[in-house]
Specification:
mainly alpha, 123 residues
Length: 123
């Protein structure tokens, strides 16, 4: 399940909703979450990650507004179908993969890479 691969760390300075948003974007851009994949309900993911439902709802709404997700009412939230053909998202996924491979070659774990981005990405 998705919650098993998401890590929310309250001790980090980054707000919890940003941690969730950034991890979902990384998974979409890397292809771990593919167009059409269904995401857990807001309540389910909030319970799994021990977050407030409003936190998850905020992330889902923001990602929908950004074109990453689409919500179909009672049918749930899925990764947007049009991402596969979108050149910007395709190139972002390539750059993300190249970056992650480069960081792994330097000996950085995924968690350490995320922490590095969080510390240095806001310049």
């Amino acid at each position: 399940m998705l919650a098993n691969v998401l890590t929310i760390d309250p001790s980090l300075p980054e707000p919890l909703w940003e941690q969730l948003r950034d991890q979902l974007i990384m998974q979409i851009n890397s292809g771990e979450l593919a167009p059409g994949d269904k995401l857990p309900s807001v309540r389910q993911l909030a319970g799994d990650l021990e977050l407030a439902p409003n936190t998850v709802a905020r992330v889902y709404k923001e990602l929908e507004a950004s074109g990453y997700l689409q919500t179909q009412g009672r049918n749930g939230t899925t990764v947007a179908e049009d991402l596969a053909g979108n050149e910007t998202h395709r190139r972002a996924a390539e750059l993300t993969s190249e970056y992650l491979e480069g960081m792994a070659a330097l000996g950085f774990s995924t968690e350490r890479t995320i922490a590095y981005l969080q510390r240095n990405g806001r310049r």
